Amino acid sequence: MSIETYSGHSAAEIVGITYRQLDYWASTNLIRPTAADASGSGSRRLYTYKDLLELKVIKKLLDAGIKLPKIRIVFAYMREHVDTEIASAHIVIDGNSVILCDGDNLIDVVRHGQGVLNVLPLAGVKDEIDRRIVSLGERIRVVETKAQDSGAAIL
Fold it and tell me: Considering 57, 59, 61, 69, which has the largest number of Cβ atoms within 10 A of its Cβ?
């Protein structure tokens, strides 16, 4: 099975950047093509689809006002600590901060992975209460009935 590859010029056009930007990012090791790297004068870089996704993420971060040195920090952190593809990660940009949503945690990747907040998922609260009511079912109804018969307030 062959992997579809894209030349540097095609990659730049697809992503919406200049070839000069692409060349600079490769020569400074921000992102190197994974299919074939340049190996001297006249050789061609070949980018994979995954490379294109990462290039587009870089462009989106730049468009959002994040400076290239911080993008380098973000990519270095994510490559080392995140198991998913960079293009499928969820990030929040707050001024100059880039925060990664990693499961139930928010991590400030510019500050080298310092946790900033924990996300408390509340979507399952209703289901948990419903399951608990059903599992306690008869006992709760008996207590409620006795309380109503005695005229006590039910909380």
Answer: 57
